[in-house]
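Q: I'm writing up a methods section and want to include an example of the input and output format. Could you take the sequence below and give the corresponding predicted structure tokens, formatted cleanly so I can copy it straight into the document?
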Amino acid sequence: MLTEKMLKALNEQLNREMYSAYLYFAMAAYFDDLNFEGFSNWMKAQAEEEVGHALRFYNYIYDRNGRVELKEIPQPPKEWESPIEAFKAAYEHEQFISKCINELAALAEEEKDYSTRSFLEWFINEQVEEEANVKKILDKLRFAENSPQILFMLDRELASRGPKLPTLLMQGEE
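A: Here is the clean output for your methods example:
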């Protein structure tokens, strides 16, 4: 059974994960407006992954006899000065999410809620990967800042991580 304090914190994180999806969809729209399909596809895939993270929290709360409380999702920004600034914002956001996950793990230990602490281990490891992936792209963008050719090559490279949801939606239409 979750304590009230832990339940509230898990619900807040579920909301943060949904905001993360909103943020990455907003970034995808920004890149679509710039006709950078690869960057957009990467962001859409990232948004889907964040929805998956939110669903993990949703299911865990119910598995522990808690009640999910969905809150309003704030509107994310919709414009960035450049692709570099968009990925810089993504990197800073992932660092924020890492901090929140670590705080949740500390709270679980404080509450002696070892099941929740165990559940959060996956997210702790996932955030290392999330930060590293965004940082690699950010570093490449910084390198390519004055080279449109490298920027277009990077856009093509990022297209390979396309979202899966459009494919899943099309399955019933065949």
